[in-house]
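Table 4 source record.
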Amino acid sequence: MTSPRVKTLLSAGLALGLALQGQRAQAQDAPMSLIRDTEIEDILKDDAAPLFAAAGLDAKSIHILLIGSKDLNAFAGPGTMAVFTGLILESKTPNELQGVIAHEVGHLAGGHSARSAEMGQAGLKPFLLTMGLGVLAALAGNVQAGVVLAGNASYFGALGQLDYSREQESRADQAGATYLETAGLSGQGLVDFFDNFRYQEVFAEARRYPYFRSHPLSSDRIEALRSRVEKLSKYGTKDDAEKVARHEIMKAKLQGFINPTIAIVKCSDKVQDYPTRYACAIAQYQLKEPDKALKLIDALLLEQPDNPFLWELKGQVLFEFGRQAEAEMPQRRSVALRPDAPLLRVNLGQTLIALSDQAKVDEGISELKTSLGLDPENSAAWRLLAQAYDSRGQDGLARYATAEYNFIEGDRKQALSFALRARELLGHETAEWRRATDIVLAADPGRRSLEQGRSPDGPSRPLTLSLGHE
């Protein structure tokens, strides 16, 4: 992982995970950030999948965003569901979290956000209409995620502040209860979650959690929901042990990264449970104690040698603290255990291109290209690929990758400039030349001719890359 400081809530210690690739937490500067982490995304997808199916929604068409914020919040819009880390940490059981997800699925299936009065707000309607296109791509997890989010804060603000009517809330409650029942899950968690925050209805608007400002809560609504779910056949169904364990691991991981000073309090030689020790290892890493972190990670690996996320974390610690050569083996192991996880391949690729061995740089390029085949909108991978190509003197490919990076980041001017330059340097009719042409046409729809070789503004450097060959 890289170490430039970017104003984000979380460090990217969640290996490209927690999307910011190893940077220090800056909670006081930026209250919100997009998080990418394979382990946590797996858990959220598993929690949501049966509920999407129960609602007749295609899970593959819905992006689940993990938002780093202490706020207790969640929201849903066309093709998207967002869950805030604050909500996950406040959920006591997997069933509570699935209850909230079911409620949001109720809004999603009912198209409530599209009918909200907030649609009239400037910027919200275009955001909702383009959510499945460039905006989500611009929010892809990468080392500059904090910067990207700063530029797109108005979009998150608009969507996060959607005001659902009380009628829509009740409908989402009832729909959520139905989806939980259909999925073989209890509706008790949804009722318990709302009941835990019943007091929110007596607070002034400004003092309420964001979730309850946009999702108005009332005692009558809670009792109506309770009355319904208690009559359903799956009401007494309990979370199985594996689901409970994964939920605790997810919370521990977030706590270790977000609140390391709190997580470290629970650490002692007498601690036995895996989630707490996992959080302790992460907390030591976050508190710049790599040797202590590695000792704890190695102890966990003795118990779980086939856990790809422990190998990922070990590689992450080693890479961030300047031990790139040592980071290679654990990162290779994480990829071998989870070859379908593109974020893990980005970590391995990043380490390989940082080594002096040209054969490994070539392998790193291959890993990055493989990751992009699985996740083409990961701008971090394009940024690293541009650097690798530049180090090899492959100017055309370096500019093409930089064009992709800037296009995903939403900087069309830079994307256009680099795509035009890439077309000059690449062989005609190669896949990269054709893709560079696509970027030119997408970045500048009014352009009448592709014969001119340079941007109207002349060649320029990207905002965040220094390729050295302009």
